[in-house]
C-alpha cells in the first residue's frame, strides 16, 4: 500500500500538498512534525505534517519527501486548529499563518540565508565532515543560501546539517537580531537613616573632626541636598566634595552614607523601606480579584478596568500565582515588548526564572529555546510574556491568559498576513485550552466594554489609584485664545510654562506629548503655497531639522532641504505645523538649565535606544522628556509631576471612525503618567477646541459617557462592535488597471451583498511606494454568518484571479480592525 502525507508549506497558497512516504516513514510520522520537501524545480521547503494517509492525490503524482526533521511533533494539535481558525477568520492561508507562527530556524528553506555566528568559539574537532565543509565555506564567503550549501556538501538534503550547525552555534540565520538590554545602574548616595535628623548630623560632624576628608564629603552632600531635590549620584558627590571613591566607600561602610540605585530600589525610594517583594492587595484590588474569580467560575472572559496606577499588575500577579500552583502555563500578552522593560523586571522579581520572554525580534536560538521549553511544559517557561507572536507558542496546558493594555491598537498586525488581532485571536486560543482569560486596561476598547454591557464578558474594576494617590488634575488650555492675545511662546502657553517652571524648581520631571515626530510636518512656500511631495507616495514630505532633510514617513524617501521653492524658485520657505523635534528645541531655549531628551521613532531606531532613554529618565538624569505616543505605554515614572499635551487637536481630527475612542485612550494614558506618588499630578492639555466633547470626557474621566456616544455613532454608521466589517484593499502600480480591477471586484460584491458594500474609494494616501491603492468596505450585520460571507468573498477573489489582467493586482483583507 502506498503512503502519503498532507503538508502545510509556509507559502501563501490555499491548498495543502500531498507527498509520498515509505511505510516505515508513515509509521514514524505524526501530525505536527516537520519534513523537508522538494518544491517546484529546485526549491526546498520545510513543511508541517497535517495528516498521514493512503489516498493518492488525483491530479498530480506525489513527490517523495527529502527528510523527516523531528522525532516528535513540534507543533500541537491545538495549534493547528487555532492557526486554521486564524486563516479562516482573517482570510489568509494556513501557510501564511505557519510562516508567521514558527521561528525562522524551524523553517529552513532553499532561499534562507546562512551566516557564520561570530559570537561563538568553535572547536573544529566537534564538527562532522559535512558540517566542517559548511563552516569552511563561511570563512570565505559571508553569506550562503541554503541551495548553495547543497552544492558545497554535494547533497540535496542539507537541512539536517544546517539544523545541527544551528544547534552547535556555528551558524546563524540572516535576520534582525535583538538582544536584551541591561541598563547601567547609576549609584546614588544619601545620608543613612540614623543620621538624617539635624541633631544627628551635628553629632555626626563632631565625630568626624578627625577625618576631615570624610566630613568634607558629608558637608558637600548636605549642601547638594539643600540646593536640589534631585537624587545625588556618587560621582556628583565625588566632584562636589572634591573627594574620591575610596572616601565615599569608607563612609558607606561605616553606615553614614547609604548607596542605592533608583531602578532597583524604586519601591522604597520614597523613604518607605519595605523591600519585601510580595505585596498585599488593598481592599479595592481584593474586591476586583474576587469579582474576577466569580466571573471565571462562570467561564467568562473578564475585563478588568482599573484607572492608571491602580495596581492592576498586582492583581495579575495573584492570578498568576494561583495558576502556577495548578502547574498550568500562563501567557501574558503585551502590546510591545520592547516597551516594557519595567514590567518585566518587576515580574522577574516575583517569579524569577519561571518567566520566559518571547518576541519576534529575539534571535533564533532564544526563540527556539523558548519554543521547546513551552512545548515540553518546562518550569522555565511556565509564564510567557510576549508581544502578539507569543500566542503562537506550543502551549500544552494554558491555564491563564492575560491581555494587558487590551485597548492598544498595536495588537493588530497589519503586514504581512496573517492580519490578525492578537487580543481576539488569543481569546480563541484561550478558550480552546479552556483557560481563564483576563483583559486589562484603564481605558478599555469599545469592543470589550460592549461585550461587558451585553453580558458576554465578566467585569471587575478599580476606580482608585493605589495608595490613595489622587488622579491627576487636568486642565484644558485654549491656545486659540492665547494666540489671539499673543500670549504664546512658540507652542507653549503661559499656563504650561508656569507649571513647568514650578515642577523644575521642585526637582520634578516633566513629560511633553506631541503626537507627531519630525521638526514640522511640511515645508511650505510663502510665495506660491507649494509643499514638496514624495515622488513615490501621495503625501507631503516631512521636514527633519536635525539632518536638514525632507523625509517620507511612508516609504523612507529623503532628500536634502531645498534652499528655494522647487515650483517657483522663491527663497521664502516656512514650516507648517510642528513635531516633537521642534518642541524639544523650543524647550531647550526656554529652559536652558534643564536636561531635555526626545523619544520618538527617530530617536529610538538604534539598538536599545528606547531602553536607554527610559532608563535615563527613570534615573532622573533627564528633567524633561518630549515624545510621541511611545510615551503612553504603561510606563511608571515615580517623579513625573507634570504632563503637557502640546496639541490635542491633531488626534481628534484623524479621519477614522476610531479617532475619538483613540484620543480618549491616548490622552487618558498619557495623563496617567503624572503624579504616581503622593503629590497630585498636573496635566495641561493645549487645544484649539476646549469645548470638544472628548476632551471634556478625558478631563473628567467620564469613560461611560464616551462609550455611550461612541456606541451610538457606531450603530448609526454600522461600524464595529455593533456590526462586522472587512476592508479589502487593492494595490497595483498601474492606475487604470487598479481602477478597473477594484470596480470589477466591488460590483461582484454588490451583486451579492447589496448596499452593504462601500467604495471603491481612494484612501487619504492613495499611492505608497509607487503602488496605487483603493479600498472597498464590506459591512455585515452581526446576525449573519460571517464565515459564509468570507467564503463567498474568497470565491469572488478566485474568479477575479482567473481574469489575466487582474492577476497582478494584490488583494489584501483586514477583518474587524481596519
Ligand atoms: P497599573 O498597572 O494599574 O497602572 P501598577 O500595577 O503599575 O498600576 O501599580 C502602580 C504602583 O503601585 C506600582 O508602583 C506598584 O508597585 C504599586 N502597587 C500597586 N499595588 C500595590 C500593593 N498592593 N502594595 C504595594 N504597592 C502596590
Ligand atoms: Zn513657491
Ligand atoms: Zn514616500
UniProtKB/TrEMBL annotation:
Q: Which InterPro entries match?
A: DEAD/DEAH_box_helicase_dom, Helicase_ATP-bd, Helicase_C-like, P-loop_NTPase, PriA, PriA_3primeBD, PriA_3primeBD_sf, PriA_C
Q: Does the keyword Transmembrane apply?
A: no
Q: Which of this chain's residues are annotated to bind Zn(2+) 1?
A: 525, 528, 565, 568
Give the note describing cofactor binding and stoichiometry.
Binds 2 zinc ions per subunit.
| Residues of the Helicase ATP-binding domain | 293-462
Chemical reaction(s) catalysed:
ATP + H2O = ADP + phosphate + H(+); Couples ATP hydrolysis with the unwinding of duplex DNA by translocating in the 3'-5' direction
Q: Which superkingdom, per the lineage? A: Bacteria
Could you tell me the keywords of this UniProt record? ATP-binding, DNA replication, DNA-binding, Helicase, Hydrolase, Isomerase, Metal-binding, Nucleotide-binding, Primosome, Zinc
Tell me the Pfam families matching this sequence. DEAD, Helicase_C, PriA_3primeBD, PriA_C, Zn_ribbon_PriA
Q: What is its EC number?
A: 5.6.2.4
Residues where Zn(2+) 2 binds: 534, 537, 552, 555
Instruction: Name all Helicase C-terminal domain ranges.
Output: 560-715
Note whether Nucleotide-binding occurs among the keywords: yes
Give cofactor(s), names only. Zn(2+)
Which PANTHER family would you find in this protein's record? PRIMOSOMAL PROTEIN N
* Similarity section: Belongs to the helicase family. PriA subfamily.
Instruction: Sum up the protein's function in the record's words.
Output: Initiates the restart of stalled replication forks, which reloads the replicative helicase on sites other than the origin of replication. Recognizes and binds to abandoned replication forks and remodels them to uncover a helicase loading site. Promotes assembly of the primosome at these replication forks.
> Its quaternary structure?
Component of the replication restart primosome.
Instruction: Return the protein name.
Output: Replication restart protein PriA
Amino acid at each position: 500500500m502506498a503512503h502519503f502525507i498532507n503538508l502545510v508549506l509556509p507559502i501563501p497558497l490555499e491548498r495543502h500538498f500531498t507527498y509520498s512516504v515509505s511505510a516505515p516513514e508513515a509509521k514514524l510520522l505524526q501530525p505536527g512534525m516537520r519534513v523537508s520537501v522538494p518544491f517546484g524545480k529546485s526549491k526546498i521547503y520545510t513543511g508541517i505534517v497535517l495528516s498521514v494517509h493512503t489516498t493518492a492525490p488525483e491530479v498530480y503524482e506525489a513527490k517523495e519527501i527529502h527528510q523527516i526533521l523531528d522525532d516528535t511533533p513540534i507543533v500541537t494539535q491545538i495549534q493547528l486548529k487555532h492557526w486554521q481558525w486564524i486563516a479562516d477568520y482573517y482570510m489568509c492561508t494556513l501557510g501564511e499563518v505557519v510562516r508567521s507562527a514558527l521561528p525562522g530556524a524551524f523553517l529552513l528553506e532553499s532561499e534562507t540565508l546562512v551566516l557564520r555566528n561570530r559570537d561563538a568559539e568553535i572547536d573544529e574537532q566537534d564538527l562532522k565532515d559535512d558540517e566542517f565543509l559548511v563552516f569552511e565555506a563561511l570563512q570565505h564567503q559571508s553569506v550562503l543560501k541554503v541551495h548553495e550549501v547543497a552544492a558545497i556538501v554535494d547533497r540535496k538534503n542539507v537541512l539536517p546539517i544546517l539544523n545541527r550547525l544551528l544547534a552547535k552555534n556555528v551558524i546563524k540565520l540572516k535576520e534582525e537580531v535583538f538582544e536584551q538590554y541591561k541598563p547601567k545602574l547609576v549609584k546614588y548616595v544619601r545620608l543613612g537613616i540614623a543620621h538624617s535628623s539635624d541633631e544627628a548630623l551635628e553629632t555626626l560632624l563632631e565625630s568626624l573632626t578627625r577625618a576631615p576628608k570624610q566630613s568634607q564629603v558629608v558637608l558637600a552632600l548636605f549642601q547638594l541636598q539643600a540646593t536640589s531635590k534631585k537624587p545625588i549620584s556618587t560621582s556628583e558627590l565625588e566632584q562636589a566634595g572634591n573627594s574620591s571613591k575610596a572616601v565615599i566607600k569608607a563612609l558607606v561602610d561605616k553606615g553614614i552614607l547609604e548607596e542605592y540605585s533608583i531602578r532597583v530600589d524604586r519601591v522604597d525610594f520614597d523613604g518607605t523601606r519595605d523591600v519585601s517583594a510580595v505585596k498585599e492587595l488593598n481592599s479595592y484590588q481584593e474586591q476586583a480579584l474576587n469579582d474576577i474569580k466569580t466571573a471565571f467560575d462562570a467561564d467568562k472572559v473578564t475585563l478588568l478596568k482599573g484607572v492608571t496606577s491602580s495596581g492592576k499588575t498586582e492583581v495579575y500577579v495573584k492570578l498568576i500565582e494561583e495558576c502556577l500552583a495548578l502547574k498550568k502555563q500562563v501567557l501574558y500578552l503585551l502590546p510591545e515588548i520592547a516597551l516594557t522593560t519595567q514590567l518585566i523586571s518587576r515580574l522577574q522579581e516575583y517569579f524569577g526564572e519561571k518567566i520566559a520572554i518571547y518576541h519576534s525580534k529575539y534571535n533564533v536560538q532564544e526563540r527556539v529555546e523558548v519554543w521547546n521549553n513551552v512545548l515540553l511544559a518546562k518550569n522555565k517557561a511556565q509564564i510567557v510574556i510576549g508581544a502578539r507572536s507569543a500566542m503562537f507558542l506550543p502551549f500544552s496546558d494554558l491555564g491563564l491568559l492575560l491581555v494587558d493594555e487590551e485597548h492598544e491598537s498595536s495588537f493588530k498586525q497589519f503586514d504581512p498576513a496573517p492580519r490578525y488581532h492578537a487580543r481576539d485571536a488569543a481569546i480563541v486560543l484561550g478558550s480552546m485550552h479552556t483557560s481563564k482569560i483576563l483583559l486589562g486596561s484603564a481605558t478599555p476598547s469599545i469592543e470589550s466594554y460592549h461585550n461587558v454591557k451585553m453580558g458576554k464578558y465578566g467585569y471587575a474594576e478599580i476606580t482608585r489609584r493605589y495608595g490613595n494617590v489622587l488622579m491627576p488634575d487636568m486642565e484644558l488650555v485654549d491656545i486659540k485664545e492665547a494666540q489671539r492675545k499673543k500670549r504664546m511662546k512658540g507652542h507653549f502657553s503661559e499656563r504650561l510654562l508656569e507649571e513647568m517652571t514650578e515642577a523644575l524648581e521642585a526637582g520634578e520631571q516633566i513629560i511633553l506629548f506631541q503626537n507627531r515626530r519630525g521638526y514640522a510636518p511640511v515645508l511650505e512656500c510663502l510665495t506660491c503655497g507649494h509643499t514638496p511631495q514624495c515622488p513615490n507616495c501621495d503625501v507631503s514630505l516631512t521636514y527633519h531639522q536635525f539632518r536638514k532633510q525632507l523625509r517620507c514617513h511612508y516609504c523612507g524617501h529623503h532628500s536634502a532641504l531645498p534652499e528655494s521653492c522647487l515650483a517657483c524658485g522663491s527663497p521664502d520657505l516656512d514650516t507648517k505645523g510642528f513635531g516633537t523635534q521642534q518642541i524639544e528645541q523650543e524647550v531647550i531655549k526656554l529652559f536652558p538649565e534643564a536636561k531635555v531628551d526626545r523619544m520618538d521613532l527617530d530617536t529610538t531606531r538604534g539598538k536599545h535606544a528606547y531602553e536607554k532613554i527610559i532608563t535615563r529618565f527613570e534615573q532622573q538624569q533627564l528633567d524633561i522628556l518630549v515624545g510621541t505616543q511611545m510615551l503612553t505605554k504603561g510606563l511608571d515614572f515615580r517623579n513625573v509631576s507634570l504632563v503637557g499635551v502640546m496639541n490635542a487637536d491633531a488626534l481628534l481630527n484623524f479621519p477614522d471612525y476610531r479617532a475619538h475612542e483613540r484620543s480618549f485612550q491616548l490622552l487618558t494614558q498619557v495623563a496617567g503618567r503624572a503624579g504616581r506618588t503622593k503629590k497630585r499630578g498636573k496635566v495641561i492639555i493645549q487645544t484649539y477646541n476646549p469645548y470638544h466633547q472628548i476632551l471634556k470626557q478625558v478631563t473628567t474621566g467620564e469613560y461611560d459617557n464616551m462609550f455611550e456616544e461612541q456606541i451610538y455613532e457606531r450603530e448609526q454608521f454600522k461600524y464595529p462592535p455593533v456590526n462586522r466589517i472587512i476592508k479589502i484593499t487593492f494595490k497595483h502600480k498601474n492606475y487604470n488597471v487598479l481602477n478597473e480591477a477594484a470596480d470589477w471586484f466591488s460590483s461582484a460584491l454588490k451583486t451579492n451583498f447589496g448596499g452593504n458594500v462601500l467604495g471603491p474609494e481612494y484612501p487619504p494616501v492613495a499611492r505608497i511606494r509607487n503602488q496605487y491603492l483603493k479600498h472597498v468596505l464590506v459591512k455585515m450585520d452581526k446576525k449573519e454568518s460571517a464565515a459564509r460571507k468570507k467564503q463567498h468573498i474568497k470565491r469572488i477573489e478566485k474568479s477575479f484571479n482567473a481574469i489575466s489582467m487582474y492577476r497582478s493586482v494584490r488583494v489584501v483583507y483586514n477583518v474587524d480592525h481596519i
